[in-house]
Structures
1.
Amino acid sequence: MTTKLKILAFGIARDIMGGSSVQFNIEMPTTTSKLKKALIDQFPEFIDVRSLAVAVNNEYSSGSDVILDGDEVAIIPPVSGG
Amino acid sequence: MDKRRIDIQILDTSLSVERCREFITRSDCGAEAIFVGTVRDHTKDRRVTKLEFEAYTTMAILEMEKIALRLLDHHNIHKIAIHHRIGILRISEIPVIIAVSAPHRKAAFAACEEAIDTLKETVPIWKKEFFEDGSTWVAAHP
């Protein structure tokens, strides 16, 4: 079933997605790699971004990690602190 | 692992080297290494007017804690403070301070360098550079 997943977006991802908290339509449950693919499909500007990570509940997540309703999901473009 | 030995903060006000020192200083340590990051006035040939830092604060704190706890595990150090600032910073202001105390200098230097190197790779904080004719998110594009 397609659900609205709330996604937190920072840095250039916020500019590309048009807000710091965006409702994104996706089939749930999903995985990190499916989410990344869906984001790039909807926002092609992500292709030009050097790397794109996903954090689920404040931890970096990888390819097959499952994302469930209620998880806190964030898009992490290349970090540049310090 | 002892969280009383680490001090992790993300602040929207000026950072203070003295405040970091107050946390790390111990009578049984003979060395303190302190890295202070400052805002540089140029990137390559372009003049930078200011920087803006943004953080995913809850996760950034957790990632900074991981760095500090791993360093306590791997180096002979006693305490570590990592303070990062967010918001608008002018030239020569301080976005980051890392302070480490250790019985001897080599461990303090090594831990301090490892901390800033890892922070730049893993902690979800982003820097936007402002020039006279525009702005850009650092490292966003290849």
2.
Amino acid sequence: MANSKVKYFLYHILVGGFAILLLYPVIWLLVSSFKESNDIFVTAGSLIPNPFTLVNYPQGWEGFGGYGFGTFIKNTIVFVFWMLVGHLISCSLIAFGFARLKFVGRGFWFAIMLVTLMLPYEVVMIPQYIIFSELGWLNSLKPLVVPAFFGHPFFIFLLVQFIRTIPRELDEAATIDGANTFQIFYKVILPLIVPALATTAIFTFYWTWDNLLGPVLYLNSPDKYTVSMALNMFLSNETVSNWGAMFAMSMVTLVPVFVIFFIFQRYVVEGISTTGLK
Amino acid sequence: MLNSRLQRNLWGYVFIGPFVIGFLCFTIIPMMASLYFSFTSYGLFDSPKWIGLGNYTKMFTEDPRYLQSLKVTIIYVLGGVPLRLAFALLVAMLLNAGSRAVGLYRTMYYLPSLIGGSVAVAIMWRNIFGDAGIVNLALGGLGLDAIRWFGEPTAALWMLIFLSIWQFGSSMLIFLAGLKSIPSSFYEAASVDGANFFQKFFKITLPMLSPVLLFNIIMQTIAAFMTFVPAFIISKGTGGPLDGTLLYSLYLFKQGFEYFNMGYASAMAWVMLLIVAALTGIIFWTSKYWVHYESEVK
């Protein structure tokens, strides 16, 4: 009896202690954002800000180049919005086609889609850049969001797997009731795949929010910067070593990620466990 | 009859149409273009000039930085992926063994994966490994010498590898789901037969988990090979010190968009594709020796 209690205790010391150790850097970042910039590395070992200050947040929020951090957040939200619209519409249509319709070449295109899942972006990066610059799309969101309207293999695959679990009898019943293919998609399947669409939306949000390479390639004026670009610029201007402001804005960019995760945790965990996303 | 078949095909292509069009416009045409550029000398302001295999021979014979980037990337992949998966499996097994509060721990272990790709975390990592950062403080506390993480190419690369290992959470979730699907009767039967922990691990857990493990090894290897953000942020875009963190993607980016050697960068991208394809092929090929599928009859 006592032995099992000791075991229980040791288990939580080990597993819990290791978890705290892993999260320590994030806690340190949070705490440091409440220290004065000059103190951060002098008192790096201490988790209690002394003196406690909020000055870094308004200072970081001022941004740079005449654009406040609010602008960068607004830009990122617009970016996320178009990615969501693009992925949700295109991936659900495409997934329905693959999962439910029989047509010549279905196996071929499905295989192609699975292959593109593993294709390094670098192979298409340069010609895409040239195409988008010929179209006059540089320094706009278009090169980043337009491809989203043509599907994303990860989410198509996720939705196909999900649709395949829905009994076909539902489609057949709707057909007998006189529904055409589009109505089956819209009225029968779409309402049933909401959980998988939620997973798609959440991961689209994460990947867009964190996307750095795309904005680095295509956005070059500060009024269009996303938060990841803005943080990158903070780092480049580090000579003034305003650590506090940089840490504060780093925390600001992490908070939405945490909030979305805690609200929609179930979809995140299920999405990863079933498809191995990320 | 013919009409209905035509209609069926038409509906199919209406639905998957966006994918087909997107694949042609954003994947296959750019891929072909990039293959062509890879045989040319192509700067920002001139048109592509055919130089045959010039870019490819230059990579392996005249460009020590290329070989350096290949070397650090291989170390990054071979150092990061196995350790990351080992941690993921170990922690998944620990969480699977515990009953209470596992949900909270699962969340805590997953958080690094959740935020790991962000610039904020790369900035954080850069600062905890600074000369006066908490990593060196901890080393000092253990009576070890401080390491100049930004002065030593090897140390800087390991700093990146640690960042990759730190994000074992998503693999852990997948393993946890896999472990939960192993029937407990297997373990009970093994216990009755007197099997010890290691026997159960090697005879039940690993074989049952092997398809999931295969999938993870492939996806993580590909993703690790293409890592860009942490190297870009942590070295402030330089790949330094002394090209110690010049990961393949970062060098390719620099060649393409800093030195404007579009042809050379395209050739690098194609070699990358071949390496990724070869790695995937090799891992698949070895899988027949160690991956166990349940339907298999022995």
